[in-house]
Amino acid sequence: MIELAKELEGVRSVAIAGHIRPDGDAIGSCLGLYHYLKKNYPEIEAAVYLEKIPRAYHIIPGVDEVRHEIPQEIDCDLFFCLDCADEFRLGDAGAFRKQAKRTICIDHHISNSGFGDVDYIVPDASSTSELVVRILEEEKIPFEAAEALYMGIVHDTGVFRHSCTSPETMEMAARLMRRGIDGSKIINATYYDKSYYQRLIHGKALMESTLLEDGKVIFSFVRRKEMDFFDVETSDLDGIVETLVGTYGVEVAIFLYETEPDMNKVSMRSKSLVDVSRVAQQFGGGGHVRAAGCNMKGTAYEVLQQLLAPIKSQLEGGEQ
Ligand code: 5GP
Ligand code: MN
């Protein structure tokens, strides 16, 4: 556990960053910590650095204060690296890791081997946002921080549904609810509400999905030109892989979208038999046992064939 007040003694400047293509947990944990520092440590100059924030998260306070450009000259006493399994996943914010006087990593990725001066890595935790709540003093959590952190927990637990949701997750969520937030509004606006075109592309991906391996594996793929046609961004595809894995008899869902010609972002989800973080790590990615991803070159068919081999061997071996 990190003693935050002690870590902040004598600190003048703090930078906070999360992983590239930030998701709900990366955004929520970074903004949650940011609001907490702003409120309780006004003498510290704090800033959050993240890549472009998807539309759905714009109701979270502080999104408009997030910086997208890394300064040329870095003068930073303490760098918080949140929800980021390795230095590469920091993107340009990796500069802080190299130049800050001290780095604290807070993360829940099983593939994170620890690259800070202080590491608080708990693979069993639902989310980095949950870990951030654990290190904060409950009565000092401002409303804005509570909204951001609650959103982070909601997203990484699939609205308290995934197996990573523990009694402690609910206790941390309860602390946040007691700050007076409207949890239902946050869940609907950031997780469930979609535009009509988002609905259409979800429907298309489901319509065109294929069952493989006696119905144990389900696969779908969205091409760049389809995304352009529906005018959707990559974050608008969030949720497709979760719907796919919720199909009767399916153990593993594989969803790809094209990032550039012959390059694909892979998302995998597993119900109970397969450790998809091991599969993703084999191709340079990472994540969690039940949710992992990587980037792979080749046509969708080639990528699928490569992924199926280790998945089949885990399914057949019954190994984890
Ligand atoms: P998603 O499928 O939602 O993009 O990601 C699922 C999980 O896998 C997330 O925890 C995410 O951080 C992790 N993940 C996704 N893509 C990559 C990747 O390319 N590299 C690593 N290390 N982790 C990834
Ligand atoms: Mn996370």
In short:
With 320 residues, the protein is of the alpha/beta class.
Keywords:
320 residues, 5-stranded parallel beta sheet, 12 helices, inorganic pyrophosphatase (n-terminal core), binds guanosine-5'-monophosphate, alpha/beta, single chain
Topology, pairings included?
Blueprint (H helix, E strand, L loop, with lengths): L3 H4 L5 E5 L6 H17 L4 E5 L28 E5 L11 H6 L2 E6 L10 E4 L6 H8 L7 H14 L10 H11 L5 H10 L3 H12 L2 E3 L4 E6 L1 H7 L9 H6 L6 E9 L2 E8 L5 H7 L3 E2 L3 E7 L2 H18 L3
Parallel strand pairs: 1-2, 1-3, 3-4, 4-5, 7-8
Antiparallel strand pairs: 6-7, 8-9, 9-11, 10-11
Helix pairs in contact: 2-4, 2-5, 4-5, 5-6, 5-7
The structure holds guanosine-5'-monophosphate (5GP) and manganese (II) ion.
Low-confidence stretches are: none
Just give the CATH class of the largest domain: Alpha Beta
Largest sheet properties: 6 strands, mixed
Mean pLDDT across all residues, rounded?
A: 96
**Span between termini:** 29 Å
Helix count equals 12
Describe this structure in words.
Helices cover 38% and strands 19% of the residues. It is of the alpha/beta class. The chain folds into two domains: 4-192, inorganic pyrophosphatase (n-terminal core), CATH 3.90.1640; 196-315, Roll (Diaminopimelate Epimerase, Chain A, domain 1). The chain starts with a helix and ends with a helix. The strands form two sheets. Strands 6-7-8-9-11-10 form a six-stranded mixed beta sheet, with helices on both faces. Helix 2 runs parallel beside helix 4 (128-135), helix 2 packs antiparallel against helix 5 and helix 5 (143-156) runs antiparallel to helix 6 (167-177). The chain has helices at 4-7, 24-40, 94-99, 128-135, 143-156, 167-177, 183-192, 196-207, 224-230, 240-245, 276-282, 300-317, and strands at 13-17, 45-49, 78-82, 102-107, 118-121, 210-212, 217-222, 252-260, 263-270, 286-287, 291-297. It is globular. It is built from twelve helices and eleven strands. The protein binds guanosine-5'-monophosphate and manganese (II) ion.
